[in-house]
Each structure stands twice: as C-alpha cells, then as structure tokens.
Amino acid sequence: RAPVCVESARVGMPLWSAPLAVKATLRAADGEKAVETRRVVLPSASAKFAEALALMGSRFGRTLAREVRYVDEDGETITVSTDEEWKEALAMGVQAVVVDEAGASTRAPSDGDGWELVGPPAAASASKAAPGGGTWSRQVQFWVNGEEVTVTNPSPNVRLLDWLRDVKGLHGTHVGCGEGGCGICTVALSKMDAETKQVELVAINSCLRRLCAVDGCHIITTQGLGCKDKGFHPIQSAIAAGNGSQCGFCTPGWVMNMYALLEKGKTPSAEEIEKHFDGNLCRCTGYRPILSSFGTFAKGGSRCGQHQSIRHPAGMLSHVSQPLHFVDEATGEEWYRPLTLQQYMSVASQTGGKTLRPMCASTADGVAKYVSKPGDTTNGTVYVDISALPELYGMKMDSDGAFFGAAVPMEKVIDFLQRNSAQVPAYKVLASHIKYIACTQIRSVASWAGNVMFTRLNPQFQSDMVTILAAAGATFDVLSQDSKVQSMNITDLLAAKGDLLLMSMVIPKIPLGTVFQTFKTAQRHVFAHAFVNFGASIALDSKTGAVKSARLMIAGATQTLLEASGTASALLGRPLDDATFKLAAAALKKDIATNPSQSLLYTPEYRNQLALSFLYKTFLSARPNLPPQLKSAIVPFITAEARPISQGSEDYGTDASTSPVGQYVTKLSAFIQASGEAVYPSDVSRPGALFGQLVLSSAANAKLVALDPSEALKMPGVFDFVVASAIPGLNCVNGPAGGDNLKEKLFFEVNDVIPTDGMPLGLIVAETWRQARDAALKVVQRYAAVGPVISSLEEAIQVRSTMSGVSADDHPHRRRGANPRHAAGVEFAATDGDGGAPKKGTTMALKGSFKLGGQCHFYMETQSVCASQYDGDCWEVVVGDQDSNFTQGCLALILGIPQHKINVKVPRVGGAFGGKLSRHMFGAGAAVVAAKALGRPVRIQNERSDDMRLVGGREPLQFDYSVSFEPSGKLDSNELTMTMDPGWFYGDAAGDMAMAVGWSDNCYSFNKFKVNSQAALTNTLHRTSMRAPGCMQSILAAEVIMEHIAKTVGRPLDEVQEMNFYQVGEQPTTPFGDHIGQDNYNWTIPTLWSQIQKSARYSERKKVVEAYNAANRWTKKGIAISPVKYPMGIDFYSSGALVCIYGDGTVMVSTGGCELGQGLDTKVALCVASALNVPLARVVIGARETQKIPDNTGTGGSGTSECSCEAAILACQKLVPLLQPYLDQQKDWDKAVAAALVDKVGLVATGWYNYKKSSNTSAYATYGTAVAEATIDVLTGEVQVDRLDVLMDLGNQLDAAVDIGQLQGGFVIALGYLLTEEQKHDKKGIQLNLGTWDYKIPTAYDIPLEFNVSLLKDSPNPNGIKGSKASAEPAMCLLPSVYLAIKNAIYAARSEKKGNEGWFMLNVPLTPEVIRSAVGVTEDQLTVPT
Fold this sequence. Notes:
Elements: E1 20-27, E2 34-42, H1 49-60, E3 64-71, E4 77-80, H2 83-91, E5 96-101, E6 116-117, E7 139-144, E8 147-152, H3 160-166, E9 186-192, E10 199-205, E11 218-220, H4 234-241, H5 251-264, H6 270-274, H7 288-295, H8 314-317, E12 324-328, E13 333-337, H9 341-348, E14 355-359, H10 365-371, E15 381-385, E16 395-398, E17 401-405, H11 410-419, H12 426-434, H13 440-443, H14 448-457, H15 464-472, E18 475-479, E19 485-489, H16 490-495, E20 501-508, E21 514-522, E22 530-540, E23 547-555, E24 562-563, H17 565-571, H18 578-593, H19 604-621, E25 647-651, H20 670-675, E26 690-696, E27 702-708, H21 710-713, E28 718-722, E29 753-754, E30 760-766, H22 769-776, E31 780-785, H23 793-799, E32 803-804, E33 825-829, E34 844-852, E35 864-870, E36 874-879, H24 884-895, E37 902-906, H25 921-934, E38 938-941, H26 944-950, E39 957-965, E40 971-980, H27 989-998, E41 1008-1015, H28 1031-1049, H29 1053-1059, H30 1085-1095, H31 1098-1111, E42 1115-1128, E43 1136-1141, E44 1147-1151, H32 1160-1172, E45 1179-1181, E46 1184-1185, H33 1200-1226, H34 1229-1238, ...
Parallel strand pairs: 1-5, 7-11, 13-15, 14-15, 25-50, 26-38, 36-37, 40-41, 44-45, 49-50
Antiparallel strand pairs: 1-2, 2-6, 3-4, 3-5, 7-8, 9-10, 9-11, 12-13, 16-17, 17-20, 18-19, 18-20, 21-22, 22-23, 23-24, 26-30, 27-29, 27-31, 28-30, 32-41, 33-41, 34-39, 35-36, 35-38, 37-46, 39-40, 42-48, 43-44, 43-47, 48-49
Helix pairs in contact: 4-7, 11-12, 17-18, 18-19, 24-25, 27-28, 28-29, 32-33, 33-34
C-alpha cells in the first residue's frame, strides 16, 4: 500500500536500490511542535535503519530517538525501529517521515549533501560574527501572497522563479526565457524603501531574482490577486474579458506588471499605461486587445478606480534586516548581504581566492551567458548583495551636478533627471535614452552602477549607459581594496584593475549652448541592444559659434567603447557647418577603423553608416534655423517615449438567432489563464519526478568522435546521462513517417556524422532543472570535420545541386491542408499546353529573384513534457504538442510497445504555431527513455536558447520568376522556380513546399502558369511548418512580381492588381483546380477590394502621403494595398469528438484537436451549446487525450477548430433525438436528462468529421484585403507602421472575439517575420540569433499605431461549417500591404537622388540595415545647411 504522505514514487526498480528523496520533520523532545523540516537524498542501497537515522541526526544537528514514524494510506501512524520495518517502508515508497529529538543539540545543522530546509526552521545559528557587531544570519525571511516564509541557507544559485514553482507550487508564474527577456515570469515585489521608509512595490522578473535576495520582501503572484473560487481581481477580469489572453502563457506576467503600475497610482493616464509594457512579450494576441483592456483603467476609462490593492503583511512592515551569509557547499558559492560598508570590506578582503561579485539586483544574469567566455562557471563565486548599504543611496543636485548613489535604480535616475531637466536641458536627453535601456521590470530594480560594472567585467558588452555617461562627462567615486576612495572618469574606471566598489557618480551640469545628443538604433523599437550607440557633447563659443571642446563616444561600431578623439580634434576651433562635417566624417571613419566591431550580426558598412548618420543628426540639431524639410532628421518617432497612444477598432456583424455561435465570446479559459490556475505541460509533474535537459551538438557536418559526461556526472544532484544505448526500440523521432525521416535520430551517437549544430546527443537527468541545465553544459564533445559546412540557402544553391520537389508517396502529408501533388510543382495552361512560355505577341517580359529568410516559432512555452510509467508497462505522457496521435506512434516505436499502452495528454499548450507538430518529439522521446531507464518520472522543459537551437523554424525561400505581360500590365504567363532550405534533410518541408506552390497565384489570373519546386539542403536545423507555412512567402512573392510589372509599365500597382483579379465567368479556374464561382466556391475579393479603399480612405491618404514626402527629406511615408486568396482544403482533416452528458445536465466534450491558444475549445463549446440548446456554462471541454480520441489529424492549418466543431455537432445530433421525447415531456433540460438516465438511455456519443468532396481541389477560400501605411527613417532604416486596415471575409464567424484575436495575433507574427525577426548562421553553421538577447519578436511598440479590423458582413460561406471560414493564417498573408508600403517609402527616399527612381529588389526581412541599404543614401547627400 502506498502511504498517504508519499511525495514521489518510482516505478521499475526496488526503492532501496536507488537514491531516495525523503522529507523528514524534526519534532522537539517534548513532542509539542515541529522544529524544522528538511529534504535529503539517502545514498543508494541504504536499507540499514541505523545508517539512515544517523544521517538524519547529523543533518539536524540533534541526537534522535531511535524510531521513525509515517502515515499510511489509511491514516494510521506506523512506527519504524528495525531494519526490516525500514526496508518495508522504503519498498512502499514512503517519502515523508517524522523523527523526534532525543537530547540537546550536538552541533550546528548541516546543509550539505543535498539537504534543504523546507519547513519551519530551528533557531538561526550564526556561521560567524559580523564586523561591527552582530552575526551573519543564515535565514532569509519573506512573504509570498501574504504568507510568511523562512528558508535557512538557500543556495545562491536558486532563482525565485524556480522556488515559487517547484517548492511553493505556484505554477501560475511561468517559465518563458529564464533571462529576463519576455516578462512571462513577472511578479510584484514590495519592501520598505531604505531611504523613504515607505513601502515600495515594483514589477520584477522572478527568473532574474535570486531567492537569497528577497529578505524582507513581499512577493505577490497572480495567484495572490484572485482566483475562480474567491473571485478574480479587476486586472485579471479586464484582460480576460477584453480578449487579451489566447494561449494565456504570458498573461500572468502582464497582469502583475499592470498591478505594479496601478499600485503607483490607481488612476494612471492612458499614456502611462501604454508605455509601461516594454518588458512583456506575447506571441498570440498581437497586443492590441491587451493594450485596450488595460487602457480601461486610465482616467476616464470604464475601470478607472477599480483597482484593488493586496494588503502588505504586518511582519514585512516591521521586519528588521540582518546581515546574511549563505553557502552552497556543493558548488562553493557564497552569498553575503552586508548592512554596513565595514561588513562589505571585511567580506571583500577575505574571499579566500574566490571571485568577488558585488550586485544589486542580479539583472545582468540574463545577458551574462551571451557575453561570458565558453566554459565560464559561477562555482566558487562570492556574491555580495550591496543593495542594503546606505552609503550607496541618495540623489541630489548641487553645484557640481546630479549626484547618484551606486545602488539607485535606473528608473529613479530617469525620474530625477527629468525633474531637473528645466535647469539642465541635457538631462532630458539622458533620461530619454535611459528609458530605451532594458525594460520596466529591469529598470525598476537594476542600478545604473551595475550596468557600468558589468561592462567593466565584460568590455565587449555594448552598454548604452556607459556610452551616454561617458559622453556626458560623468565622474565616479570608487572604493578600492585599500579602503581609499578615488574619483575616476569612465575610461579609467573601465581600465582599473582589482576588486572595486563603485560608490556614486556625478553627472555634471552640461551648460546651455552645449550640443548634447545621444542616439541608438536597434532591431526593434524597445528592449533591444543597439547596433550602434552614439553620444556627443560639443561646447560652442557663444560669440563665434566655433567648437571649444568636444567629446564623442561610440559603441557597437567598435569592439569596445571608443572615444572618437580624432573626430573631436577635427571639430576644435571650427563651426558646425558642412565643411566641418566632411572633416569630422572622415575622422570618424578613421577612429572606428582603429577598433572595428567583429560582430557577424550586422555589416561593418551599416555600422559605419549609422555612426555617420548620428554625427549628421548631431550637426543638424545644432543649427538654430534648420529648414523645415530637414527637421524630420532630429524629431524622434521610433522610441516608445516618442510613440503616441496606439488605437484600433473592431467591426463585425452578429446574428442573435445563432447565439451563442457567432457572437463575441472571449476564450472560456481566459479568466483562469489570467489568475494562473490554468495548467500547461510545463506545470505538470508526478511524484518523484526528475528533471532532464538535452545535450545538443555543437558542430555541423562533423563526426562525433567522443562524448564525455564524466564532469557532468560529478555535479550536484545529477543522476545519469541517458544516451542512445538506453532506447528500447527505434532511435528515431519521425518513425511513423518512414522514408528519409528515419535518419532523424532521437539521440545521435559517437561515430555518427552530425549534420548540424543543435542535434540531441543525450539527456542529463538531475534533481532540479538548474542542476540538469548546468550539467548538460559540462558534457564534453569532440569532433572531426568531414567536409565543408553549408550554412545558408545562397551557399547551397551555389555549391550543391538542388533536389526536386519529392512526391507525396515518399513524404506523407499527414499534417497539411495542401494538395500533396503540388509539392513537386504544377503546370497550367488556360488555352494551349505551352506551359509557362509567353504568349505570341506579348511585348513585355521580365525576370527577377526574390529571397526571404527564416523565422523562429518563439512560442511562449518552450517544448515541455512529463513522462511517467504506471500499471507495469503503461505510460502517461503529458506534452505540449499539435499531433498527439503522431506523438503516440513515435513513442510506441521508441519504447517498442503497442500504441494502446501510451496515453498522450495535452491539457493546453502555451503556443505552438507549427513548432510542436513534430519537433516536440525530441523532448517527449528523451523523457520516456530516461523514465524507463531510471524508473522515475521525468520532466523536460527546454531552456529558451536550446529550444531555438533544436527547432529550426520557418524555411528560407528563394523565388526565381519569369513573367510575360501586355503593356497595360495584363498578365500572360509566369514561370516560377521555388527553392526552399529545409535544413539538413527534406522531411517536414514537403507539405510546406506544397503550400508554397498551391498558393502562388494569389488572386491573379494567368494564361499560363508553371511552378517548379526544389530543395537545397544546408547544414542547419531541420525546418518545420510555421503558421501559414510556405504560403505567406509565396503570396508575398506574387505581390513582388505584380509590383515589378506595375513599375515596369508605369501604372499604379493597385490598378495592375485589380485588372488581373480572377473574374467569375471569364477565367475562373486556378492552376490548382479550384473553379471560382462553382460548387459554392464563392469569390468576394472585388467586394473587399472596393470596401477597404472606402473605409480606409485609401485615395485620400495617398495624396496626404505624397504631400508629406515632398515636405520631409529624412523621413518618408508609403501606403499600399494588397489582397489574399487563401484556399482551405478541409477534406484533409480527420477529426473526432466525444460528447458525454452527465446526470446533473452538464456536458463534457473531448475532441482530437489540441488547444494551442487558437480558441478551439471555446468554438467547440459554442457549437455544442447551440446544438444541444443548453447554456454555455453547462459545457466544458476536456484535455486532448489519445485514450479518448484516436487517429486524429494534427492541429494546424487553421482548419482544426472548425472540423472539431463539426465533429462535436455530429455527436450532438445523435444525442438530441435520444433526449427529445423527454424534453417534450419535461420542458426542462435537467429533468429531461434525469428522466432519460432513469430509462437507461446512454447519453454519450461520438462524431467524426468527414468532408464531402466537390469538383474543387479546395473546399473554399478565405479572402481579405489590407491597406497599410508606414514611415521610415531614411538615415537609420528604422520603420514604424502607422496604420493598418484589414477587411476579412470569414463567412459567418464561429466566434467574433476568437476570430478577430486570431487575425490580430497572426498578422503581428507576420509583421515580425517582415521587420524584426532574423535568423543568421556563421560559417560553422552556428545560429547567431538565439534567445531573447539577439532574436527579437515584435513588442507592443512594434505593432501598427492604428490597427483596424473589420469582418465582411452578411457573407456566409456555402461550404463552411455553420457558414464559417478559417481565420488566423489567411490574415498573415496580407503582409504584402506593409512590405509594399515600406517599399513605396523607400522609393520616395531614393527619388531624392536623380536617376535613382527605378525598380529595385527588396528582400526579406526588412531590417533597418536592409532598408538603409535600399535607400542608398550616400555621404555626399549628408549636407549641413548654412
């Protein structure tokens, strides 16, 4: 019998033969109270009772009574005092015991050997006296959601996030990136301010906060604000009711950041709310509904004043701080928190040779892994928390300038500088730039000094703070090891040797008349490190205007911070005129050349262009009477501070007669997602579960000659390194697919040729996530090169022969809605069979080559799984996937067991976008193999950068086209060759190629149309489907071709587009077998095209844009329109549903679709409520389980929701006739159900979706149009999308809220692909853009300033389920509207130079570098007016 108190259990081996985790509670000798509780891992093969008791006694530092007690499953207390009884207890899986104190303490409790205090502690014992009196306390005391917590000797490397989740069980605070780059783990932290003695509450990233550093703090998580049982907090209700939560994984972080804002003031302005969320990412919603939801709390908003504060614990208010000292014996790490400078100096002078690391908030941990040297370790580090030293605080203005203590957070520096900017205008420039550093959660706690000292330790780190403080001439007081305080400038500080403590700085009063400017350009608008930082302070003679002194600082264009002394010398004694600029520009290039950056992410040419542009902007800012046309160069519009409040509208129609279907119903789980009660795969554990981390290959196209885990296995908490030899069955993650897919191994092995970086070699298994992650990095890999590494599509095309599109027989298209025949291409002729040859008499033809890059999925929840064995050889695998039956089939082959032994369960998924169709199998396969080998459940959640190394993302594509057309722009023929980079083998890319081919005509009719497809293999990760796979790029390529034609014939693009639309009755057949207007295949593009131009005032705004461009030299606008035809092949789907009606009248529905955030469950619930005519609240949707619905197709392609709805409706249609006689009698649902059950009527039914084939290849098409307007900075290449109007034909939508949300979110993913997201590899095949540091998905400040969405009304889909159409992916294919708007802005900029007005190719992504290069501004165009 398993005891009630079991916390973990193992299957597959006798418990006494393996290490055993036991939670032991010590009671005082009088038996009245618990003294403390500790957790220990007992040694292997320890079945001797005396040994176990002695070990526990030594750890508690007590002599124990010779008995142990535990509670069995019947609630009985069992006493153990012999070896046999102890052995029996271990065999039963007992994990929680009580021991009694027998006598006085014999020594201080031991915290080594894996013991961790987990309950009420014994009285604190001092490790040693603290200088200045008192002792170093070994306890950290804090509060979580009002509850007091005391932890003794926490390890310095334990993060608050991990403790909240793994110890406290507060899973509502999720793991997103572990580096402070996404905001998912945001919590509120309150404490008494050391200076004001007032409670201060801020939002922090719990992944960056160490548990040691929360002494005296109150931590509030979303689960402390409200819940379903006790009522939701107004913030939780607002974001849920406002359609601001889709997958919901990021929602708690948004909630807590908003809570922190409202704690500062319950009635913030709309502007304050809008600009507070630079540190929170979302991949699903497109941000618009989140901003609108939170905007209701602003002054005048519907929720203004409704905020509810959580009371601060009385203990926190009266908490008295003590000096702290903690030690992790296993790693040698130590943590001190001194309260006096004397205590700090004592610690600093007695580190015993260990590395000393002073810190305030440890926010640098997030970036340290990107700038530290390979092999660097924190083991043996002495961390000193200096945040409690009163000498490091204070802010004041005096005759010298602005004084700041070293521990003052950046947010307070910003506020102080702004308050004093009337006196010193340059301070406003500094404050604005500091707002551009990091994000709200980091700036609230991170000290300015931490940024400076991190740069001192890591000179290659490109610091905004250091650059602008250096430009301002700040001076710093530094305490050296000999207790002397020295004053230094930034250059001397960065070069100084030894352990130093930065005490304070003074930013001098920069005199009026001094030209002071700072600049930065980055990959996205906020929370991104700069390509180039620039700061200039130039003092002018008030009489002559000549330069008296100059200081110019540059970072990014150079390897380390550079003072451009040559440039400064070129300025001295000269006026800031055009001649001086030419001299300074030449000198600046020479200065940069002395220490050029070695970064591979951006070209030297672009970095130099930015530096020159910033110098030019500085010169223009000095001109007192700058001509109006040039002022746009110095008016910021990109930063969050300069950005106006965004807005948007939603317009749709509803039909009350179909309610609740078609109404505006937000996700049914949105409220529990906001409160943190929703369960995700990464939250799921099982008793005794261990943590696994994959070891990934570090070379490409190389032979693995050795794999040495010996150092990793010595690390604390590590159980094993599981490799291919442990796999019982097939070593493959794609087994059911067969063919070439069989070479994709679960674990690659020694002597294998490793095709690419990021392939799994094995799994480290340990007690904690952190232990497993640290150990995985210690596994040594050795390689021998076998050939050249091909790292890009361009290289592959040049040096390798391409592979033609393969047939469907070789590559099953189990997850795609495309016709598999199209993977190899298509040839179509409307009249004769000449293929793609131009029609005789056609006078115009052109060719081009259009290239598009890849894209990372960047779902919010990284790949996660928990695998556990039960009932002998049965398995439960809780995983985040999109294709549970594929998962089941793969695992059965890996384990060598039948599929019915495996239940794959998907509660909900924190985003997927195609990345969990097959790529999750690395984690799922590794988890079951490790669980099988160790006899313990195993959990895996990928670290963010590892996840990006493991999952390839969207495929890069190249489109080579040859088109013929009439002088009017009327199309004739198109011969198109698509070349795709699928990574190191074709595999998953087959379906994506089929979609790229099948969508390539978009809305346009050709006489002849020929498409060839081919693959060019590279030594990069195997690519897989990503939202709108293949077709988003293909439709963009179609519009690129149309734009090329329009420019060639000299006609407006919108005219050429419209004249070539398919026309019902003229040329209604597409090259892919769809007959426009036949078999109910409706065609609404002409209607949408006309309506969007009117509602968006397209013609009027084109004139406004032209006028703007004529009036502004250095910013330009563009506006454009584009359509989309998105064929939906729903005959591909095989979807099932199970509907159960219970005795109380409630309804449980299970479907074969996975809830990924797309609202599938909500749509199904609406349809079931409608079909059964019951209130929506009576319907609940269960988790996806293969035990309930087998053989379902994967969830993807935007069609699973509607097909699952139809399956559920078919099941309901079986139940309604069974209940109808009772409903006729009872007139009440509950009574009718009860009466039916009395008569033993079985109220359970299944439904299976089965599409009836028509004459068309596709069932229908979703249509849409969009008008976009954008502004570019001509000098930097930065872009802002000013406005986007979208009009979609979704038929009769199933749910207006869900469909509009999907449309908004999908489009912003597409916007990221176009503008901010870039994948690059070095020559060794190593991906350069990893994690949140270098890979930038859009933020709330990258979306359109105005985002208007409308759904076409009164347009039911004749072939759709309840008249509906698919939503998210079709809207993504309206991306060409933004692309073309930006290109039009570039045309306007290029036209400033004569002879530069012609057509040019513009490849994707449109990063600032690409845009700046396309504009082609030359140095001679940078002229300073007189």
